[in-house]
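Sequence and fold:
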Amino acid sequence: MFSIQIPIISWILVGVQIITVFILLFIVLRPLRLIRRLPVEYNVDSDIPAATMPDEETNETDETNETNETDVAEEERTPTIPKVSVVVYSTVDEELLTAFLKSACTQDYPDFEIIVVCDASLEASGILSEKYEELSNRVYVTFIPPGSHNLSRRKLALTIGIKAAKGDVVLTTVANAIIPSDNWISTMVRPFIENPAIELSLGYSKPDYQEITGPGRYYKEFFQLLTDARWIGYALMNKPYRGDGFNLAFLRETFFRCKGYAKTMHLHSGEDDLFVNDIADGTNTAVAISPEAILTTRWGEGSKRIFNLRRSQYDFTARWLPLGPFVRAGLASTSQWVILLAGVGAALFALPNLIPAIAAAVIWLVFIITESAIYRKAADKLDATVLSWQIPLFWLIKPINNLYFRAVRRSSRFKNFTWQRHKLT
């Protein structure tokens, strides 16, 4: 009976498909898969021990002894609650700042202060200080001194705020952030209470994607989620290398012991990724990400510009970060094309026999379903849009988009240095 031989090259390409799929899903995408460990809910009071009631049948002496022993045991079990200083960088948008402070002042954490550092004049700072003193006695307002344009404004603002802080734990954020619940501070500080070795607590913030309009909105969200999931996943692997300065908690003592932002003061950015990479390791860093503590930042009409600016800054500072996460990201993007092209090649070399084509199609289908499920789980955990059919397309576009973005932004990379600030205006 007549039969058509299948070239060995087709089977080799199908084998390449299978091996690449296995490596990609189980090794390369491991940080993304680990996002499923993040809690759906985070009950900050769940581990507080209930008071032990004495037995009614015991005599008075026994009751007293048991009560004393219980009190001692309770004191030994009760963790130290550190004072927290929330340092807020503000560009003096009073409407956003007022909304933030009203939400922040209702936090359920027992001991905290709010230090607002305004990128404005002393006069404006004084007016705001008087205004917000009526809101809460927890709020203190200061400002960035004039004549500091050749320094990173954000790093300078945070340093001023941290120096003024009275708390043992500093929590940095921005005035245009939306706080999702009254448990935000408690969630961010809980790792310090549970483990005295913790010096850094990594939180998470996301842009308000509803403000980003145009056909590229969903791709921007896809790209941002993959970028954030990578550093969060590495932190869950006990290999932290980056953080989110809009939602980041650390010990004040650690900040000054490590000389703060001194190493990167010549750069506009780096107050989160380079700072965290400098002091974080697998033993002193915790991830504190849950629905109750994911902040949303609003940028209004400047959302698209801020998104591209932050992407450019992170791309620039990547040269000082560990190479591993970026190699893994590159392999993830490249593997998408390897799997697709290997399948197409296997089918074409075997024509008119359709067996390799069917095998390649089945492998590709299983791959995109599994990969999409991993992405969708991460999107659900990080409060992002749960995409569907766009996922395989966006994965293929990603390496092309990266090359285009870097080519377009290459000429402006010098602007990341603070001494070029005057050329930005």
